[in-house]
Write a structure and sequence with these properties.
The chain is mainly alpha-helical. It is built from five helices and no strands. It has helices at residues 2-17, 21-27, 32-39, 47-57, 61-64.
Length: 68
């Protein structure tokens, strides 16, 4: 399922960046519990929020979706 794979990708990027869910969510102005549910694959996230996440990691949208 794409939402679970996407969540795993986000967690991989965040862990590689060495940042907690809370700090990353604050960085991108997103509620931590919302972001945690996205990482867990429990949300059908909007394009607007996907773009916020990509910007937070400093990568393009295509890079965010790499290997999905």
């Amino acid at each position: 399922m794409i939402s679970i794979d996407f969540g795993k990708r986000l967690k991989e990027l965040r862990v590689n960046a060495g940042i907690s869910q809370e700090k990353f969510a604050l960085k991108i102005d997103m509620d931590r519990t919302y972001y945690a549910s996205v990482e867990a694959g429990k949300r059908n996230i909007s394009l607007f929020n996907i773009k916020k996440i990509a910007d937070g990691f400093g990568i393009s949208l295509s890079e965010l979706f790499e290997n999905l």
